[in-house]
Structure formats: C-alpha cells, structure tokens
Design brief:
With 628 residues, the protein is α/β, with parallel strands linked by helices. It contains 21 helices and 10 strands. A 6-stranded mixed beta sheet has the order 6-7-8-3-9-10, sandwiched between helices. Keywords: ATP-binding, Cell inner membrane, Cell membrane, Membrane, Nucleotide-binding, Transmembrane, Transmembrane helix, Transport.
Length: 628
C-alpha cells in the first residue's frame, strides 16, 4: 500500500486465480513447526522500531486516503455552490490547497513506508538466506545424497525470497486494506447513511463475480501450463540429438510433426480462452463500476425528490469518490487468508531446514590434528562397521568389521568388485560419514576426537569426477590456497604435469575453464585437480578412481602426475585399473564389505585368490570389471 489507494491487492497479486489452488495445496504440505509465530517474530525483533513506524505510517496513509472526498464535499457545497449563490473562491482555494497538501503528504508517507518495509523485509531475507546457507554447509554428506539439489535451491531462493514479501506487502497490505475499508465505510456513513446502504449492498456482488471469474481462469491456466509442459517434453524428446536420430532412423518425422501440431493447436485454443475469460471479467468490472455511481445518483435523486433527506451535490460527488476506493481493498482482503497461509508455509519450510541437526559434528573437546610424532599421516581402521543411513535394517552393512593400518608415507590401494565398499573407505577417513561401529584413526587419533576442519585440511582428495568452477585456472587452483603466489601455482602445475599445457593457452593461467571445465579435456581437468591438491600439500592423499574415466593416453599422463603427487605422503588409491597400482606398498582386496586379502601385487598373485582372478580377467578383457 502506498499513497491514496489504501493497500491495493496485497502481495499475492502475483497469486492469480491461475495458481491459487496449487498454492493452497503446497501450503497444506508445509511442515508443522512449534511456536512458528514466535520464531517469525524473533526474526523481525532487531527491526522493532522500523516496524512500529511502518504500522503507524500504514494507519496514517489509510486514514488520509478518505479525507480528500470529504474535502470535495466542502468544496462543492461551500466553495463552488455556496448557499449565497456566487462561488466563494477564497474558500475554494483553501480547500483545494488542503487536498493537494494531503495528496503530497500521502505520497511522501507512501515512499517512506515502502523504503522501510523494503529495507526490513530484504534485511531479514538476506540474513535468513546466509543463516540457512551456513547451516547447510554444516550438514553431513548423506543429507545431500538423499536430497534433490533443486529442493535445496528452492529453499534458498524461492522460500527465502518470498520472506521479503511477507513484510513488504502482506502485512502492510492487510493493515492498509482493513483501515481503508473501515475508514471508507465510516466516511460514507457520515456523508449519507442511506447511500451507504445502497453501496454496501452492491459492492459484494462485484467481489463475488471476481472470485467466480478467478476460479474459471484457474482451471484454464492449469490446463494451459499442462499443455505447455507437454509441448516442452515433445521438443526435448524429438529435437535432441538422440531424438532426431531416432525419428530419422524410423522415418517418423511426419508423426512427430503431427503430434507437435496437435498440441500447439490445443495451446492456441487455451490461450484464447484464458485471455477472453479475463476480458469478460474486466468488461463486467467496467460496467459495474460505472453502474454503482449511476445507481447512487438515481437513489439520491429519489430521496431528494421525496424531500426526505438533506443530501447535497457535494455529498453525492464525495460519496461516489469514497465508494470507488472500496473495490481494490475488498479484493485484497479476500486474498489475505491465502497470503498469510503462504507466508506461514514459507517460514515453516525454512525453519524445517534450520532445525535439522548435522549427523556429524565436532565434539565439545575436539582437538587439532597432531603435526608431530611418528603417527603423523597414519591411517587406521579398527574393527569398523558401516551402513549408509538410508539402507534397510536387514541389509548387510557396506563395511563389516574392517581393520587395517596404513603407515605414514605408504602407498596403499583398495581393489575389489563393484559395490564391495572401496569408495566408502575413502568417505570414512575424512569423516564425511560416521562409522556405525569401531574406530577410524588419523595420525593416531580417533577422528571423532578431531575438529572436522582440521582433519579435512590434512587430506587431499582427487576423485573420478573433477569439479572445476566457471572461473580462471588460477582461481580454480587458489580454491585450495587463496593466498598462493603465482610461483606456487606454477610449481604445483609443474608437479602435476599441466604447466606446459596451461602456458600454451593464449591467456595462460587467466584462461576461463567454462562451466564444469568444459573447455578442457578430461586429462587436463584431472591434472588441474591434482595441481589444486598439491597446492594444499596434505599429509594424506586419497585417489578415488582418478583415472577410470580417461582414455589410455590421458591415463598415462595423469598417472605420471599422480605418481609425483604421491611421493612423500600417505596415499590411498581406490583402484579401477589394476595396472595403475601394481607398485603399491600394500593392496587391500575388498569383497562384500570385508577385506579378504592384503599384500603386494606379487604376493597376491602368488596367493591365487580374488585379486589374482580379477587381475587375470582384467588382463584379458577391456571391460571395466572393477568399477565402484
């Protein structure tokens, strides 16, 4: 609400008839949060003064909106047509000046109110968004593996974004519309109670008509959106590379054209119906708005002709002016229930995420990772059992009583069939997941007794799926060490055998790699990831099938970089191709969640067990038998 119009339609002017039904259904699915109103009030508590001023401004603005019509009555009856006959210009000038002053004051108050509500609403939204983002950063890895990325983004963008509108529109609109309606009704009664009865009886008819038309438009809009979705699906299916190859291979282009054309005809029909339903409504509004003053004139004329009232021309003009201001506040109040429900649902969904407790958190007395002693860089599993949080109770655990020790500086490899639990080992070391039973020790200390940030800072991970930001190569490298010098970047790149390639680019380290590094080859991306880890310089390096997605040539180059990276540090490799780990100090063979064999490459071949079988199969086949 601002200025003279006392509120308008409220925030959910954007919730048209077309999506009100869907919005109500979404609101009904919102979680139930105890003391929701109290927690919402707590968010706005730091802005208490601005809120109080806003409420006062709403009341003043709404009250002022009905003053000009009263001045219009005086201008007609005392200025233009005074009892004496000739117009009283001096009196008229004073009244006109008062009206202009009120118009000006109302607009200034409206601007002030808008600034206050926008500032408070967006401040709360901003702090809530950062608070939610910070909380999500603390959540365990399993939360993100079981939650769709789109759902998380919706909480951050849509739900939190809607919070600003709660204050900037919903609350002020509710207050403004209520005050405007009450003030207008009081003004109408003061002007003429007989005419007020006529207007009050007629106004609900228009409000009901608006609601009915809105429901019709809702049904049409739902069908229109459904048709658009169908057209989008047809486009994606048939115009993708795979789709166009399929249709050409089976000469089905005419069928696809006909299917698209039929849906397009349906979309055209629905669009016409939607626009026409709105046109009929606006025509009804126009006719009714024009009719109400005419009916008031007629009724006033009947009263004046009967001599039963002292209604003056000024009263009639003032009355119709006040009456015309009632429509939009009434329509806004009809939507207020949905507004408040939607606002509560937004807050409930946000608080639901804020109330989530991270499954993995630092202990009260968590310590830093030791940086001296004989155990620095040592990794040990002591009778570890682990099952993923979403696994069924009767299923076997992913890891079942696993024990091993990797000494500082050793190169250890984990191999085994798909689903054996190899990658899970790499998740438990940095405590991305918590062991269900047993202990995971890092540098001689149970990881549950270490600060997570300290633990992860001593571990470098190179995975199969390299993630690069849409930024320069230098910026991607400095993600590991923000204050790294250019010389340090070059040293890390040389160690990862990627400096020469970077130097060959026209912009060198300032080359933008593109979304997820699409401008680079798989081998180049992987070597940049290795350089990033080397810049971090961790005591322990985890290689999770780091070369499995590469071709033979790229694999050799990347493997050479990995060999350099692993020198002088504890290295744990989740092996895809056994040829890459034949020189490992120790190889652990994992099968069905247990370590069934361990030893060097030659020892395991001599044992003629699971490893020997897998090595033989991989040596005679190009199939990736050991994919995790």
């Amino acid at each position: 609400m601002s200025g003279m119009h006392g509120g308008g339609g409220g925030r959910r002017g954007r919730v048209s008839g077309g999506d009100a039904v869907a919005q109500r259904a979404e609101n009904a699915e919102a979680p139930r949060i105890p003391n929701l109103l109290g927690r919402i009030a707590g968010l706005f508590a730091p802005h208490r003064t601005a809120l109080i001023v806003t409420v006062v401004l709403v009341f003043i603005s709404a009250g002022l909106s009905v003053v000009p019509p009263l001045l219009v009555q005086r201008a007609f009856d005392e200025g233009l047509f005074p009892p004496g006959g000739a117009p009283d210009v001096r009196r008229l000038a004073v009244l006109v000046g008062l009206m202009i002053a009120i118009y000006l004051g109302s607009q200034l108050l409206g601007v002030w109110q808008t600034w206050l509500t926008a500032t408070v609403g967006n401040s709360v939204m901003g702090s809530l968004r950062v608070r939610l983002f910070t909380h999500l950063q603390a959540m365990e890895l399993s939360f993100f593996t079981r939650t769709k990325t789109g759902v998380i983004q919706s909480r951050l963008q849509n739900d939190v974004g809607g919070v600003a509108s709660v204050l900037t529109n919903t609350i002020s609109s509710l207050l403004g519309n209520v005050v405007t309606v009450i003030a207008s009704l009081v003004a109408m009664l003061l002007l003429s109670w007989q005419l007020a009865i006529v207007a009050v009886v007629l106004m609900p008819i228009l409000v009901i008509a608006q609601r009915r038309v809105g429901q019709v438009r809702a049904r049409i809009a739902a069908k229109t959106q459904e048709s658009l979705s169908d057209m989008t699906a047809i486009t994606q299916e048939t115009l993708s590379v795979s789709g166009i190859l399929l249709s050409k291979s089976f000469t089905r282009q005419p069928t696809e054209i006909r299917r698209y054309s039929d849906e397009n005809d349906n979309q055209v029909r629905l669009q016409v119906s939607q626009q026409m339903s709105g046109q009929w409504f606006f025509a009804m509004v126009s006719i009714f708005l024009s009719s109400i003053p005419a009916i008031v004139y007629l009724f006033a004329g009947l009263l004046m002709a009967g001599g039963t009232t002292d209604i003056t021309p000024g009263t009639i003009v003032a009355f119709t002016t006040v009456q015309s201001r009632l429509l939009f506040p009434l329509l806004g109040l009809m939507r207020v229930t949905l507004d408040l429900q939607t606002s509560s649902a937004l807050f409930a969904r946000i608080f639901q995420y804020l109330d989530l407790k991270p499954a993995i958190s630092d202990a009260a007395e968590a310590a830093e990772v030791p940086t001296s002693g004989t155990d620095v860089g040592r990794v040990e599993f002591d009778n570890v059992t682990f099952a993923y949080p979403d696994s069924s109770p009767d299923s076997r655990p992913t890891l079942d009583h696993v024990s091993f020790a990797i000494e500082p500086g050793q190169f250890a490899a984990f191999v085994g069939p798909s689903g054996a639990g190899k990658t899970t080992v790499s998740y438990l070391i940095p405590r991305f997941y918590e062991a269900s039973a047993g202990r995971v020790l890092f540098s001689g200390v149970d990881v549950r007794a270490l600060r997570q940030e300290s633990l992860v800072s001593h571990i470098g991970i190179v995975s199969q799926e390299t993630y690069l930001f849409h930024a320069t190569i230098a910026e991607n490298l400095r993600y590991a060490k923000p204050d790294a010098t250019d010389a340090e970047l070059e040293a890390a790149a040389r160690s990862a055998s990627i400096h020469g390639t970077i130097a060959s680019f026209p912009e060198g380290y300032a080359t933008v790699v593109g979304e997820r590094g699409y401008r680079l080859s798989g081998g180049e991306k992987q070597r940049i990831a290795i350089a990033r880890v080397l810049l971090k310089n961790p005591e322990v390096l985890i290689l999770d099938e780091a070369t499995s997605a590469l071709d033979a040539i790229s694999e050799r180059v990347v493997q050479a970089a990995l060999d350099t990276a692993s020198r002088g540090r504890t290295t744990i490799a989740i092996a895809h191709r056994l040829s890459t780990i034949v020189a490992a100090d120790v190889i652990f063979v994992v099968d069905a969640g247990r370590i069934v064999e361990s030893g060097t490459h030659s020892e395991l071949l001599a044992a003629n067990g699971v490893y020997a079988r897998l090595y033989s199969e991989q040596s005679t086949s190009s199939s990736p038998l050991l994919a995790e």
